[in-house]
Amino acid sequence: MNSSFLRFSDIEPTAIEKLVHRAIAIKAGDHGTPLTGKHAVLLFEKPSLRTKLSFWVGFEKLGGKPVYFGPDEVGLGKREPVSDVAKVVSKMADIAIIRTFSQSVLDEFAAAGSIPVVNALSDYEHPCQALADVQTIFEHKGKLKGVRVAYIGDGNNVARSLAYAVAGSGGSFVCASPVGYELTDADISGATAYGVAAGGSVDQVTSPTDAVKDADIVYTDVWASMGQEAEAAERAKVFAGYQVNPALMAKAGSGAKFMHDMPAHPGEEVSAGMLEHASSIAFDQAGNRLWAQAALVESLLK
User: Fold this and answer.
1) Which residues pair with 152 in a beta bridge?
2) Considering the entire predicted model, what is its pTM?
3) Are residues 133 and 266 in the same domain?
4) Does 7 fall in a domain?
5) Domain carrying residue 203
6) Does any domain span residue 25?
7) How high is the pLDDT of residue 269?
8) CATH number at residue 159
9) Distance CA 281, CA 25 (A)
């Protein structure tokens, strides 16, 4: 893979399952302390539970030391130019883990700095979430190739990274979104090309019922992401028919599992109690952020 992880496609498709297996091994206790003496800087412009906790604990489990800077401490591109921050951090730390509003911040930081950079979420992608997602799918389905994943909702950063992850693993990804909220043609063609050698595919539809037919996994995300609060009321109207609930799960394939990257909004993209539904593996999915990211940073710092 590349020296940084800014987009999911920075991982070669052939390396996805290797990282998944390494994550599972680390989860089982096979890790030691390969990051002893290494320091990670966590630069977060957005609040976080799963991302901050999983990177912090994962880095420590492998023997390294994390240092955290919250939204008001650095001011990337405001208090100080992104390129200056990147050069300073590169003098003192071994890896930068950045959660930001703009993908351009990650690109600028990686270009100016001299250490690996990890996208811990941006407006364009959420590749670490997708890596944990494919680990979770593998654990529950025993394979990645041939698995059908139906994503219901906004064609956002989570959907974009997941499309690449599933296609690159040889699975089929279908996204059901209202008109105007789909993945772009470039997203679909890019993810399709990324997964072609593995036999993966990416499709876009408007009907949730069509998407979940024969699905092994039914996945959803919030209708309005951080930074889209002003659109929340309008999006609630547009996405009203895109809720994942027991009735929709009943139309999926036999034994289908439900996934959500969380936080969830019961009554909106999911019905009340859906995270605790018999089909739900959402909390396993959340926990796997720790192990997938530990495998990732280990690979970047080898």
Assistant:
1) 176, 220
2) 0.96
3) yes
4) no
5) 129-285
6) no
7) 98
8) 3.40.50.1370
9) 20
pLDDT value for 74: 85
Beta bridge partners of 118: 5, 97
Query: Do 150 and 186 touch, CB atoms closer than 8 A?
Result: no
- Give domain status of residue 302, yes or no: no
Same domain (yes/no): 102, 217: no
Q: How many Å is the Cα radius of gyration of the chain?
A: 19
Q: How many CB atoms lie within 10 A of CB 18?
A: 14
Decide if 138 contacts 165 (C-beta within 8 A).
Answer: no
Check residue 178 and give its pLDDT. Answer: 97
Sheet with 217-220, strands from edge to edge, namely 201-205, 172-176, 148-152, 217-220, 257-260
- Residue 231: what pLDDT? 87
Dihedral angle at the C-alpha atoms of 285, 290, 292, 295, nearest 10 degrees?
A: -170
CA–CA distance, 200 with 172 (Å, rounded to integer)? 5
pLDDT of residue 71: 86
Q: Greatest CA separation found in the chain?
A: 54
Residues of the chain with pLDDT under 50: none
